[in-house]
What does this fold into?
Amino acid sequence: MILLSELKEGQSGIIERVGGSGAFRRRILEMGLTKGATIYVEKYAPLKDPIELIVKGYHVSLRVEEAAHIILRG
It folds into this structure.
């Protein structure tokens, strides 16, 4: 198990669990970051925040603190 925020550019994983609660968790799930989805880290911004991800064929940007709530299996 690894946190999404710990992945480096070019790495990928499968979402095991989305943490957090309330509106934050609902927003993440609505963006398609659901259990079993494959997620690929395309790149980090120059100051390492946010992270640009590819999920289900589309691009999503998340802050590193938000990505720390998403647990992956390698």
